[in-house]
Amino acid sequence: MPIVSSSDFIPVMDRFIGHWESSDPDLILPENGLPVALGHFTALRAALDAEKASLQGKLNDLENSRVVLLQIRQDAGDRIAEFNRRIRADFPDHRLFNQLPPVPSRTAGRDAIILAMDDVLNIWTRVDALPATPLFTAPMLLRGGLTLAQFTALRTQVDAAFTARGAAEFATLETRMKRNELQSRALELMKKYRMKIEALHAGDSVEILTLPRLSPLPGHTPDPVTLTGTWDIPATRAELTWTASTDADLATYQLRSTPGPDYSGEDESTVATFLPGTPLIYHTTTGFAHPGRAVSYKLYVRLTTGNEAGSAPVTIVRPG
Prior knowledge:
Layout: H1 9-23, E1 29-31, E2 34-36, H2 38-90, H3 110-128, H4 148-200, H5 206-209, E3 227-232, E4 237-242, E5 250-259, E6 269-274, E7 281-284, E8 294-303, E9 308-310, E10 314-317
Helix pairs in contact: 1-2, 2-3, 2-4, 3-4
């Protein structure tokens, strides 16, 4: 198995550890003028595994923050639009009509939404201060009995959701950089290990013939298959199906995913591996803990040479 994706690092490192233990457990590699022993490489593997797990957690947090922000931004926009309609209906000839805030789009940034909500709070406060008339008696309530105080609380929640989204983005970026640093170090050490073994052993030796690879063997790239995915409402789970590969060198199918509606090859993780001849279908609830959560997938055709091709990405969203 070569390294063609971030998801390959741990299994490939495991192969190098096994080879190292079998061929020469006392072998030392140089790194920045310092010795690296098998124990150091094993510790690096553990550190990378932990960082990858941490990144997966950060990606899940990022997706949660996206869903929360999407929902609360939708709620805020709906309430602003409802407030404007109410003002126009109750005060058609009042000067407040000319001061109504624009309704922000559902993808608007923080400033557009917060400024519009602040305008609503300002106007609503003045409306509630109006003397009673046969047509209106304060306080004004929106649908469901929403009060000025509750709208103020919603404004706080919107602000917090944008802050949480920014914090989640930073935490993901920081953890991804740490993971990449560990992967780069691991890759360089594995290259040095191969060079060392090739320098110490004959080309037809067991050590050379069993040396783990880091890149695919020469050969063709397979044709991708077609992946489809839906949310199975009665079973409350995602369902993925794909077409069969006809490549004679097919080794496995590998399903990979990233949290969220946009597939990221940099952050993909392996969900499952399927042998040829097994059913071309997969069900899962992983990543769909809450309505609105999305997971994106690709199905890779992997050949015996290590060459691979991925399908077009498919995104499944849990409805609700």
